[in-house]
Write a structure and sequence with these properties.
With about 90 residues, the protein is mainly α. About 55% of the residues lie in helices and about 0% in strands. The chain is extended and about 40 Å long. It starts with about 30 loop residues before the first helix and ends with a helix.
Length: about 90
């Protein structure tokens, strides 16, 4: 019967019972709290300009470290051109 929770077609074994879901998190409780707070603010349309500035500064530092370590990573333009040509 379609829609039956025991139907192997609609719900392969294990998936309907979340047997493949891991409960182990690599995110620290502190970081998870920050993520939840940020998601809450975003859902309410609250803009924290200081937090946004700090995030931009962190991203700029990370981008520069990656550039210094690996050089310019120019993968998007060639990939898009290749997709257009195919």
């Amino acid at each position: 019967m379609a829609g039956d929770a025991d139907s192997p077609i609609d719900f392969p074994t294990g998936i309907s019972k979340n047997e493949f879901m891991s409960t182990v998190s690599t995110i620290s409780p502190e970081m998870m709290a920050r993520l939840v707070e940020a998601a809450d603010k975003a859902s309410r349309g609250v803009r924290d300009l200081d937090a946004m500035r700090e995030a931009c500064e962190r991203m700029d530092r990370l981008r520069e470290r990656i550039r210094q370590k690996h050089g310019l990573l120019d993968v998007a333009v060639p990939a898009i051109r290749e997709l257009r040509d195919s």
